[in-house]
Amino acid sequence: MRITRRTSGGRGEYEISEPTAEGLTPTELVGKRLVLDLDGSWRIDTGTTLTAQGGKRRLRRLKGTPVQLHRQIAAALLLPHPVRADEPLGRGAPVAKQNQYAIENVELSRVQFFDPDLAVLHVREIYLRNRSYEAEELGVHVRVGEIRHLWDEAQNFPDEISALLREHRDLVSSGYPIPENAEKLIFELQKTVSQMSSDLGIVYYDGTTDVLKPLLEAERTAAVPPEPPVSVEEVDPEEVEIRRRTLKQWKRWSNARGSASAKFRQAVRRAYNSTCVMCGLHLPATRYNPVPGVDAAHILPWAEYDLDDISNGLCLCRLHHWAFDEGLVVMTYEGSTYYVRIPDEIQAGLRDEVRLFSLDELLRYVGPIPDTRLPHQRAHRPRPQFLEELNRVS
Question: I need a labelling partner for 75 at 20 to 30 A (CA). Which of 144, 198, 228, 352 fits?
Fold first, then answer.
């Protein structure tokens, strides 16, 4: 037995077709309120019934049910918004693109009746389609497990994503028909993950396709980060250039940890009010630029330190993040004041090697850092011993 999409008349509707292995026919479901069982413990009262009009068995929403069955399935399973008609179907892979694919079939393993008016439909598999692919298996039971895993790990994501995952769990696991808010939540989650993809360590995500895969990618990267480089302490102190290269490798490694790194960056930007501590540029995310113009840079990315403590971070514009990582500018703590410095040997070397190097642009911001650029909470300000250790090894 299966729930099948039919496109007669162009609009697209869903019906229940074929008998079960036990001989139960779709006719026996007419008038029943339908409940979907996704994995044996996750059931959704769809607020949908099967009608028989003119010999056609069609699924219809009961009064008060906010959205159709196929949209409830998509929202529950973190899929982009689907369509019913053929006309808007897209082409190519991936199949599940926003408003360009359809839930073609929902294959059922069995049907149970618990009272005269209620039928529980146990889902075996779900198939998606577009113009290029007629029946792509979703792998529904694996997907349900992955969604539950993300719910359990929600606290490890940045606050915006964490809140959306928790809200999704509450909306789709209540047992009641899934509301339209859940669809809006999926769209918001897609947009947020796309905006934060670079922070999350996601190679590419455009915000219109399946959001589950990039979320799992970010979570896996955080759980099993790339192997760290050799310790700086293992490099001979006289090998200055090797120590500098090793330090840069550590900084790159610290930014390759998926959701854990994104959570750190979010906290640092918030502490500094999205303002570069070295030049004072205020470049937060807005509706015109969803990606902020400032980064969160680690001071010390060593495993023996708390990598993601705000006091081990600096909020820097793209120019100063690059200059800081390259060792062109340094931050020091002297007395009770933080300073931006460019070491004399760096200045002399740059002037000798590249006469037109825009050193004056960096020199504009050398000097004491105003207190207003630093976090209000003193515990969040750069830890002096971290700056001292960084300047010692580099």
Answer: 198
> Residue 285, Cα to own-chain centre: how many angstroms?
17
Burial of 33 per CB tally in 10 Å (0-12, 13-18, 19+): middle
Query: By the 8 A CB rule, do 281 and 275 touch?
Result: yes
In residues, how long is the chain?
A: 394
Write out residues in the chain with pLDDT < 70, as ranges: 9, 221-260, 301-307, 393-394
**CA-to-CA distance for 286 and 294, rounded, in angstroms?**
13
CA dist., res. 224 & res. 227, Å (int): 9
The 3-state DSSP class for residue 255 equals coil
Q: Which amino acid is at 34?
A: L
Q: Show the tokens assigned to 276.
A: 């570069």
The token pair that represents 357 in the structure block: 């190097």
C-alpha to C-alpha distance for 10 and 12, rounded to whole angstroms: 6
The count of other CB atoms within 10 Å of the CB of residue 386 is: 21
Q: How far apart are CA 184 and CA 87, in angstroms?
A: 23
Give the integer Cα–Cα distance in Å for 125 and 290: 37
Identify the CA nearest to 4 among candidates 135, 96, 119. 135
Strands of the chain (E only): list them. Answer: 2-6, 13-17, 33-37, 43-53, 56-61, 102-115, 118-129, 136-137, 294-298, 313-317, 330-334, 337-341, 367-368
Could you please report the per-residue DSSP string of 143-208?
Answer: HHHHHHHHHHTGGGS-HHHHHHHHHHHHHHSSSSPPPHHHHHHHHHHHHHHHHTHHHHT-S---SS
3-state secondary structure of 363: helix
